[in-house]
């Protein structure tokens, strides 16, 4: 990458929303969360699914981290970094996420 | 389809039918010479009713189908399309309308939106009216498509701009890409034609030369660089397998991901499979579950037991499954043969001969055959 963003600073106060090209939902037959987009689908692992469940266009990254910490108290310190890394990749590389 | 993450169970032996293609009708206002419908489509006039289609959607969804493509022919010719979209969306599908755009009004697009349609793919044949209308065999098509594409974006749909690329339009690929960017397309599919059915009949008119293909790829890459970071448009260029040395992993494996239901309810593992000498099941007689997991047609080419040499002992068979069964049958007369695209196939010369022929300035020595009723009937009569 030519340009390095400072994800921690940039992201914590920002409010993510799902890019309008994607639809996030639970797939009962596959028992996983997925992102659906024109003629395609990404199956998500458990942590990506858990994070995106809280993306509602209202909650900041910070607020999402708090919710996840309540949900997964065993996540500890790693959880914060994991969520930040996820949003950084989901926004910068995968384009799943936009910020309001 | 992509798969991210590791929390999934081991892939079961037979995949789920994640992709359901509903060919609602074979009727179509266009006559594209590379149409994927069967040559004898004019013999198949039966169409499932609204209720029968919805039952198909319900059953396939229960088996895991998540993507639903409304296709044809021209799906807009079904008056119940709004109703079908609504039912599909309520079942949880991501709904794709794959259309020529012909006859699509603002009001109808708005109604589709209200019914929950997720995305519209508009097909173009070229970047200007003259060639577009010549290739589609319809004099109004280009103007209408432009209008439709603009409305698709105005209504906030994601838009896929699809243009089948072939010898007749490959040299204007720069203009095609510029048009797709100007229309603010989200995805641009520049798919070179695949030689089944109508396209195989017209192969000499359609197959580009290697030099044409290389130039087109380079042009596409140049535009990719140019719009990088500025536009969200993603350019997808699909190389024709005739210029590969290994076959494509067709449909991600036979009966492994993809389920096509034709207008009369015949179930196929891919939209070309009707050309194979195989009796495929029909949703009016069997459940989708039984069709997908237990029918003879859907099990014929699963696994590796059916393979002949050189596929059987090939260390790449798990990657490409021996290539495309339809291509093997159409070119070699035996669907169990290796796809002749493979350089290891004893029939590979069939491909290189076609490539060599495409090096000529005017490779075709007969008229292009448009996909229409008259030609369909003629082809049925002549076998």
Helix and strand arrangement:
The complex is a heterodimer of chains A (100) and B (383).
Chain A: H1 7-11, E1 16-18, E2 23-27, E3 32-37, E4 40-43, H2 46-53, H3 61-71, H4 76-92, E5 97-99
Antiparallel strand pairs in A: 1-5, 2-3, 3-4
Chain B: E1 19-23, H1 50-62, E2 67-71, H2 81-90, E3 94-99, H3 106-115, E4 119-124, H4 129-136, H5 141-154, E5 159-165, H6 173-182, E6 187-192, H7 197-201, H8 203-206, H9 210-227, E7 234-238, E8 258-261, E9 267-268, H10 288-294, H11 296-299, H12 317-320, H13 325-332, H14 349-358, H15 373-382
Parallel strand pairs in B: 1-2, 1-8, 2-3, 3-4, 4-5, 5-6, 6-7
Antiparallel strand pairs in B: 8-9
GO biological process, one term (chain A): pyrroloquinoline quinone biosynthetic process
GO molecular function (chain A): quinone binding
Pfam family, one (chain A): PqqD
Give a quick set of tags describing it.
A: 100 residues, alpha+beta, Arc Repressor Mutant, subunit A, two-stranded antiparallel sheet, disordered N terminus, B: 383 residues, alpha/beta, TIM Barrel, 12% strand
Describe the protein.
The complex is a heterodimer of chains A (100) and B (383). With 100 residues, chain A is of the alpha+beta class. Chain A is built from four helices and five strands. In chain A, helix 3 crosses helix 4. Chain A is globular, with a radius of gyration of 13 Å. Chain A starts with 6 loop residues before the first helix and ends with a strand. The relative contact order of chain A is 0.23. The model of chain A is unreliable at 1-8 (pLDDT under 50). The relative contact order of chain B is 0.13. At the A-B interface, strand 2, strand 3 and strand 4 of A face loops of B. Chain A: It comes from Oceanospirillum sediminis.
